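Researcher: Next entry in the queue.
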Amino acid sequence: MSIEKYIKTQCGLEKFKHLRKVADKSLIDKIRLYHFVIIATLRDIFK
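Model: Structure for this entry, 47 residues:
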């Protein structure tokens, strides 16, 4: 399953890649990543 299917904007994909890179450092960063994916998916679902 590819994230590009759910997050369709270029800036959203760049932000996802950045958050995925820093998510290994702490629990807060991992929560931020999950929150971003949920919100970005809901925003881009109809685009």
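Model: The chain has a mean pLDDT of 89.
Researcher: Noted, moving on.
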